[in-house]
């Protein structure tokens, strides 16, 4: 709080009455020096009774270098999520909130009288510092009808099977460049069974996914909890109204509180692209608190290989984290991050939020480069059949059966806690492999399928022996 107050010393305030009967404008200006990078600055302004719309415009210098992120909290305060009314990060330079509508990323509803706060957060500052201006227009008017949101359906069927989906994506509600209409249309065209909405630091999209309810595409709520300085993580399986806060540091020691909030909704917490920047590990929070790791983000590359190595080393130490893959898509095409590439394929008891999350939590998951790739891994032991994510009885022989489709001219590798167990050339589009694993030779087996250039085609979570 002291840091926030120190930053307020750079603040100037001007109030302009644009039209006595229509609106008033509040202009706030300030300067952020280079040494205040990543500091949170709350810019307060008073909203009089009778206001039905708030419009905010942001300007700052050296916009090709500086980045100033932006969000807003209403009169309920900014100390927790109670007053949260939206976040656009650095994706927008202006937004509005009205009683019946709002800019993407922001939440329409009652414009309560009192002190509101705009949160500005510099994630890049030029050596000369950053000068900024906020223009806030307060518009009075006749009270509008509050429009209730329409969250997505939570269950489409109860048919057990393998379901294909994408766990990481963005639209105009954060820094994506497509509408929710366009995203849903593309997901259906690619025949995905489910998608998980993960906008940066906002639940605005989650409030209205029910507009797209259908019998063949399940939409699950989520949020990419985003701290530029400390890393990103996905909260998946949230209730529509849940917002998971991001405003804390690793040294605060409270990440467990926010992961616990996700679990309270029945959701899971997934570490995103942990080697996002130049090959350095950019995720700084305590990974022990998290359920899984996004080891495959978009096209396979060296950063994904580093994430895979980190996950594999954890497995060998007996740390069970679920591996998932996702596109992190922002645009419809022309990017290494295209929707549904890769896909997280989950064995679930049905196409529902709870069933998909249960399947992921139990590790009944493999990752495929696309919809033409499929992989079946089963293990027979002591008269029973086990699959990906299952635990066999200790010290029993394991008869492994693999069926792979869509992986012609690749190499399949069976991997254990001591490294490579066996490798197999896949010459045909459909191929089966049978092998035995001796009791006690490994605590798990998992499978990777790669092209000759080491590009990943598919990989599984472990079967635990």
From TrEMBL:
Signal sequence bounds: 1-20
Protein's UniProt name: Polymerase/histidinol phosphatase N-terminal domain-containing protein
Gene3D superfamilies, per database record: Metal-dependent hydrolases
SUPFAM superfamilies, A to Z: PHP domain-like (SSF89550)
CDD domains from the UniProt entry: PHP_HisPPase (cd07432)
Keywords: Signal
Stored InterPro entries: PHP_domain, Pol/His_phosphatase_N, Pol/histidinol_Pase-like
């Amino acid at each position: 709080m002291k840091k926030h107050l120190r930053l307020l010393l750079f603040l100037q305030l001007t109030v302009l009455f644009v039209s006595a009967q229509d609106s008033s404008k509040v202009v706030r200006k300030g300067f952020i020096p280079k040494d205040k990078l990543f500091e949170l600055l709350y810019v307060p302004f008073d909203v009089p009774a009778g206001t039905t719309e708030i419009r905010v415009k942001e300007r700052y210098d050296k916009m090709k270098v500086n980045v100033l992120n932006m969000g807003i909290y209403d009169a309920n305060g900014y100390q927790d999520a109670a007053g949260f009314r939206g976040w656009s990060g650095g994706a927008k330079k202006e937004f509005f909130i009205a009683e019946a509508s709002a800019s993407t990323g922001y939440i329409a509803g009652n414009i309560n009288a009192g002190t509101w706060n705009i949160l500005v957060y510099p994630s890049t500052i030029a050596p000369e510092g950053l000068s900024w201006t906020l223009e806030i227009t307060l518009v009075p008017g006749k009270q509008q009808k509050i429009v209730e949101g329409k969250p997505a359906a939570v269950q489409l069927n109860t048919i057990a099977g393998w379901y294909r989906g994408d766990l990481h994506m963005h639209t105009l509600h954060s820094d994506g460049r497509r509408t929710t209409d366009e995203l849903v249309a593309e997901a259906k065209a690619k025949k995905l069974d489910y998608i998980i909405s993960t906008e940066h630091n906002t639940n605005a999209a989650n409030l209205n996914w029910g507009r797209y309810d259908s019998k063949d595409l399940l939409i699950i709520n989520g949020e990419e909890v985003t701290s530029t300085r400390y890393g990103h993580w996905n909260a998946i399986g949230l209730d529509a109204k849940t917002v998971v806060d991001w405003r804390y540091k690793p040294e605060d020691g409270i990440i467990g509180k926010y992961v616990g909030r996700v679990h309270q909704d029945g959701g899971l917490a997934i570490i995103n692209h942990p080697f996002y920047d130049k090959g350095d590990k950019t995720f700084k929070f305590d990974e022990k608190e998290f359920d899984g790791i996004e080891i495959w983000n978009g096209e396979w590359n060296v950063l994904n290989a580093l994430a895979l190595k980190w996950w594999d080393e954890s497995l060998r130490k007996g740390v069970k984290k679920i591996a998932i893959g996702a596109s992190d898509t922002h645009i419809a095409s022309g990017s290494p991050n295209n929707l549904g590439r890769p896909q997280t394929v989950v064995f679930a008891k049905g196409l529902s939020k709870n069933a998909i999350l249960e399947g992921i939590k139990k590790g009944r998951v493999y990752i495929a480069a696309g919809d033409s790739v499929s992989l079946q891994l089963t293990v027979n032991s002591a008269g029973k059949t086990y699959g990906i994510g299952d635990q066999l009885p200790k010290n029993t022989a394991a008869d492994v059966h693999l069926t792979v489709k869509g992986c012609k001219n690749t190499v399949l590798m069976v991997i254990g806690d001591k490294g490579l167990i066996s490798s197999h050339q896949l010459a045909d589009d459909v191929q089966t492999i049978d092998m035995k694993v001796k009791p006690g030779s490994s605590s798990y087996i998992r499978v990777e399928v790669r092209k000759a250039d080491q590009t990943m085609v598919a990989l599984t979570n472990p079967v635990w022996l």
